[in-house]
Structure formats: structure tokens, C-alpha cells
């Protein structure tokens, strides 16, 4: 294909991707009550699933402290068009999140024809696993990282006379940052898979720099969570598990590449006889 033909193909991929975002954004816009009352504002209420789960866990462990920690703050809007603007922008963001698997599939359809046959074979299931990891990270961020951050920040006070009245944009920004950060961090195994396929990373390198990786993970957990040691540990544990999983993925990739190389060498030797 010529350069113009590539641009034409890319244009249609972009158009289809944009249409999917518009469709999901429109659906989210008209589902206003569910989007805001149940989904967006869920972590701001004491009956949210995560708070009830921590309460039950505390009761099992003989502690009532998780049940006593209540979310107590007011979300407010200070601008005339603030709620409308937030409704539109939030619907657009939700549309991108819902359309993410399809967006990645369109990207993959554009890239796939330019790959060699063995590269296509090695990348089978990429769209599925990328989408699954993205969804798992999104759920972890929404049900674990975001509620812990919101609960800590909303209950933190420097003086009892100061009332927490949180701006709507600040609340949604915090929620979005927590969930999306976790969604992309959970893509670590797929990133390692492609880097290992390209020969840019090996399991030995990942094992050698494991201590450095722990420090980096702790820094990332400190950035995406409030200065609460419990929240940081809860976020660090699954990321560390993903790192260990990535080491095994890199080891599996190298084992497969070695087996294919040995088979190719054996075939060449047999053909030369």
C-alpha cells in the first residue's frame, strides 16, 4: 500500500473509533441518574460496597474501627454551567472507557497487516488480554483505590471547625485519576510481553532489578493514593503480584522463542543432509 492508502485506511479506523465513543458517550449522557447517583457519587456515600465490605472484615477481625469511619462531606457546584459541563465531560470520559476494547481493536486492525506472520501468531489474543487487564484495573481502582483515597481525604481535617465542602470537579477528578491510573498500571503484563517478544527485556533483568521495581511501585502507589500507609499497601500488593506475573510471562516468552529457534535449526540441518 502507498502512503496515501495507509492514510485512507487509518482515516476509516479513526472514524469508526470516534463513532463508538460518540455512541457510548450518548448512552452515558442519557443514563444521568445511574451515571452520577449510582456510579460517580457511589464512593461518596457510606453505603458504598467497599465501605460495607471493610466494615464486615473489621467485625470478623474483632475491630469496629472500619465501621466507625464514615464519609462526611458535601459535594457542591460553584459555577452556573458547572453541572452541565461536568455532565458532558464525564459522559465523554465514560464513553472512552466503555469503548476502550473496541478502540484497541481498531488500532490492532490497522497495525496487524504490517506484521510478519510469526508476529501475528505471537500476538494472538492481544486485544482480549489488554481489555481484560484494563477492566480489572478499572474495577480495582473504582472499588479499592478510589474509595480509600476519598475516605481518607474527605475525613482529614486540620481543625474541627473547618467543614469539608468539596467542589464537584475536584471530586470527579480524584475519582477519575484513581481509577484510570490503576487501569493503565494493570497493563504491565502485556507491556512486558511485547517487550520480551522484541528482545528488549528478559526475566533475568526483571529479577535483577526487582528491588528497584519495588521502590518504583511504592512511589507509584504513593502518588495515586493519599498519604495513608494502609491504602498504599493495598495498592502495592496487586501491582507486585503483576510484576511477578510479568517475570513468568517473560520467562515463558523466551522459552517459546528458544523452542522455535531449536526447531528451525533442526529443520535446516535435516534439509541440508
From TrEMBL:
One GO cellular component term noted in the UniProt record for this chain: TAT protein transport complex
Alphabetic keyword roster: Cell membrane, Membrane, Protein transport, Translocation, Transmembrane, Transmembrane helix, Transport
Topology of the protein relative to the lipid bilayer: Multi-pass membrane protein
Cell compartment(s), UniProt: Cell membrane; Membrane
PANTHER family, per database record: SEC-INDEPENDENT PROTEIN TRANSLOCASE PROTEIN TATC, SEC-INDEPENDENT PROTEIN TRANSLOCASE PROTEIN TATC, CHLOROPLASTIC-RELATED
Subunit structure: Forms a complex with TatA.
Name of this chain's protein: Sec-independent protein translocase protein TatC
Phylogenetic lineage: Bacteria, Pseudomonadati, Bacteroidota, Cytophagia, Cytophagales
Amino acid at each position: 500500500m502507498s502512503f496515501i492508502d495507509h492514510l485512507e485506511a487509518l482515516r476509516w479506523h479513526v472514524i469508526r473509533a470516534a463513532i463508538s465513543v460518540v455512541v457510548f458517550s450518548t448512552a452515558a449522557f442519557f443514563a444521568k441518574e445511574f451515571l452520577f447517583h449510582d456510579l460517580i457519587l457511589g464512593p461518596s456515600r457510606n453505603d458504598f460496597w467497599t465501605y460495607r465490605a471493610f466494615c464486615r472484615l473489621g467485625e470478623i477481625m474483632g475491630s469496629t474501627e472500619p465501621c466507625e469511619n464514615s464519609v462526611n462531606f458535601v459535594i457542591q457546584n460553584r459555577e452556573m454551567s458547572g453541572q452541565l459541563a461536568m455532565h458532558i465531560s464525564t459522559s465523554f470520559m465514560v464513553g472512552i472507557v466503555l469503548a476502550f476494547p473496541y478502540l484497541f481493536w481498531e488500532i490492532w486492525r490497522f497495525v496487524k497487516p504490517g506484521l510478519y506472520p510469526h508476529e501475528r501468531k505471537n500476538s494472538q489474543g492481544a486485544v482480549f488480554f489488554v481489555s481484560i487487564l484494563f477492566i480489572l484495573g478499572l474495577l480495582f481502582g473504582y472499588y479499592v483505590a478510589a474509595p480509600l483515597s476519598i475516605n481518607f481525604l474527605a475525613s482529614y481535617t486540620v481543625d474541627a471547625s473547618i467543614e469539608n465542602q468539596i467542589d464537584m470537579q475536584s471530586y470527579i477528578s480524584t475519582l477519575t485519576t484513581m481509577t484510570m491510573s490503576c487501569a493503565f498500571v494493570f497493563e504491565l503484563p502485556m507491556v512486558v510481553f511485547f517487550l520480551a517478544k522484541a528482545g528488549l527485556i528478559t526475566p533475568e533483568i526483571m529479577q535483577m532489578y526487582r528491588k528497584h521495581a519495588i521502590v518504583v511501585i511504592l512511589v507509584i502507589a504513593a502518588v495515586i493514593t493519599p498519604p495513608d500507609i494502609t491504602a498504599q499497601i493495598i495498592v502495592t500488593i496487586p501491582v507486585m503480584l503483576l510484576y511477578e506475573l510479568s517475570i513468568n510471562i517473560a520467562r515463558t516468552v523466551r522459552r517459546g522463542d528458544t523452542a522455535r529457534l531449536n526447531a528451525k535449526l533442526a529443520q535446516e540441518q535435516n534439509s541440508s543432509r
